[in-house]
Amino acid sequence: MSELVKPRTLSGFMELQPRDQVLFDRIRMTLEETYSSFGFFPLDTPILEHSDILLAKAGGETEKQIYRFEKGDTDLTMRFDLTVPLAKYVAMNANELAFPFKRYQIGKVYRGERAQKGRFREFYQADIDIIGDGKLDIRNDAEIPSIIYEGLKKLGIRDFQIRINNRKVLNGLFSVHGVADRSTDILRTVDKLEKIGKENVAESLAELGIPKASTDALLHVLCAGESTEEMLALLKEYQGKDETLDQGLAELSEVLREMENFGVDPAYFRTDLTIARGLDYYTGTVYETTIKKHPEIGSICSGGRYDNLAEFYTSRKLPGVGMSIGLTRLFYILQSQNYLNAECANAVDVLIIPMTKDLAEPLSTSTFLRSSGIRAQVYFEEKKFKQKIAYADKLGIPWCMFLGEDEIKEGKVSLKKLATGEQVTVTREEALSLLLAEKERRNALPAVLL
Amino acid sequence: MSELVKPRTLSGFMELQPRDQVLFDRIRMTLEETYSSFGFFPLDTPILEHSDILLAKAGGETEKQIYRFEKGDTDLTMRFDLTVPLAKYVAMNANELAFPFKRYQIGKVYRGERAQKGRFREFYQADIDIIGDGKLDIRNDAEIPSIIYEGLKKLGIRDFQIRINNRKVLNGLFSVHGVADRSTDILRTVDKLEKIGKENVAESLAELGIPKASTDALLHVLCAGESTEEMLALLKEYQGKDETLDQGLAELSEVLREMENFGVDPAYFRTDLTIARGLDYYTGTVYETTIKKHPEIGSICSGGRYDNLAEFYTSRKLPGVGMSIGLTRLFYILQSQNYLNAECANAVDVLIIPMTKDLAEPLSTSTFLRSSGIRAQVYFEEKKFKQKIAYADKLGIPWCMFLGEDEIKEGKVSLKKLATGEQVTVTREEALSLLLAEKERRNALPAVLL
Questions:
Q1: Are A10 and B48 inside 8 Å of each other by CB?
Q2: pTM for the whole structure
Q3: Closest chain A residue to B257 measured between Cα atoms?
Q4: Which positions ≥6 away from A228 have C-beta within 8 Å?
């Protein structure tokens, strides 16, 4: 026997214990169902692509972080997001696709970031995007956050707020105040408002050489209260002064109105003129989503509107709007802060423990239960009775079922609820009803308590 | 604007059209549900691992085909199957896991095989395994093919047969006939029985120097008729002559008996003494699964019993049994041979087409439908009416719903079934019933017709 290799997983690669994996999958599937309920198609692009495809746009930072290598004479890169593969896919298939093309993709992406707690090198992103051919109605910009709202609520997350802005409003404000040429610098500074406060931002802007009058006027608007109504009222004073601003304001108002029509509770979203996101990519609506109790986490779900999804691959104009949840990171936070609902971490509804050598009856019972939707495991190993119960307990299986000679003779089964120790002897059908009721109760529980 | 990069996908990497992706996902989810219904936990290991972990066992052929590269000073390999990562996982977590550990994993694996039609370099495997600590009851060997039987049937595949053998029976037969020292050569030859026929195999065995008497006796047993009863009767004549053979025969009989107890229709499985699978890995039960109409495809799902899952990582003895479906290849075959059910390739239940500028009513209707499980898309774009219907048609959306001023005034909606052109004006609730009935009908359809 050769020497043993120490089994280990790469650092920065999440690998979960079985019961945590059940929770992760439940969260993933809830998002899939939500995305799908709005008419989005699933997409599954390869993890490897030609390097020139993935790096057609990428800048220095991205290039440093990527997993890139050669195999034979092919230059390969592992995808670092799901947007570039989408752009490739839509450009390749533009003639076959029906537009607007609505797709979701939940998949792993790879970034060789410095390893640190809560940072992952392999992580899931959960993306939705709507792509238009030539143009795309602004009301799609209202649908995207409405989907995220539904998804987060279904997960059991209630302590979140989706913040919405429109880049055109910002650009318009900069124009009006005569600082359009410094917009990138200003945005970068203003982005820190929440962190460093109004006064420090004012100071930084002064250092950048922005006139005090402009700074005061800008900060007056950008820092306007929590209420969307106040914000819109303030912005309306600018109407007619700048075409871009007018357009941005019209878009923003439309998005906010349609979100209400979608049934999004106004407590869950607000206008925030200080968010800008990926300066060179988004062109209109932008979104960020924060957990109110945990501002330190930053945005758990971001996105926005872009004019040209696939400009590096096609001259066809393909505008789009989308959002992306950093799922692995979100899961890590929920797990490490104890917001996961352990009651949802079970994969088996009942453990059938045969008490006879002959398995005809236990096996046919297991098949009967499964055919009605119960996840039933038959325990085959020779172990002490106590060990079998301990096994069920460790896996979080709520019920054990015993089939001894007496039960079989009477056409019954014994069912024990592990949490309470109660035991009943009932018919198969009665057992099924009990198990289904318990399953339904658990299915209705949220995976997250936050 | 810089030059365009031609959008393209790596050869050997499957990337599906949206409606085919819906079918693929449905098949994947059906397998997940089936695996899960037997009490298996999901597992999701990284796609990248330390090279020394993945290659602890690998031989020359595997090494040539792998995607291996360095990043920084780390030697990385993309997983080429799901078994080696499972071995690592179980060895790493052996103290925390409850045994038997039952897990399924459906994930992508990577092999740099020569590109050819129907061969993939990135492909899904859909694995189930049961791992014991020290020992594992033989009845688990009956459960594994029973799960595959349920899964394939649920997919709509009816034309399959699971073939079962036990390596101990073969080794015992070779012992009895005095050719145990040539077992590897003989197995390799016998494996071709179905392809090249009995006479050619006899000739090959003669060339290997196997005595004619041994060859005749062996082929007499190995080629015994289609019926499992005949086969077992023949094998029983050997009882008492060799301990390994006796043990193998007892195991095989037990597996066949419990499969019947699991409710597997005997038409779907049979003993086949000529299958051996991965000579150096499996130690007892082995399985192959063939599509009867398409023997040329070879096995779509294989596996077996092994004594030591993780011998390269731990001295702990971890026996197991499992099977694996080559999902991407199976899908490719079903797709290219037209066995996929196009009626299952829809992602949207209803397209809501607003006929008014105000969207309050259409949007609240869409939210109402979604909350009852209907996948509802609202069409926002400004297009001609005909183009909107064509859009629904292209996506395979069965119903369109119109909300004009008249409908809204009456508190009704108009619902048009695209297949027939029928249109009714009904209440929201009535529309929901119609849509749910159609959805239920489609959900009951098999994704595969074979």
A1: yes
A2: 0.95
A3: A360
A4: A256, A266, A270, A271
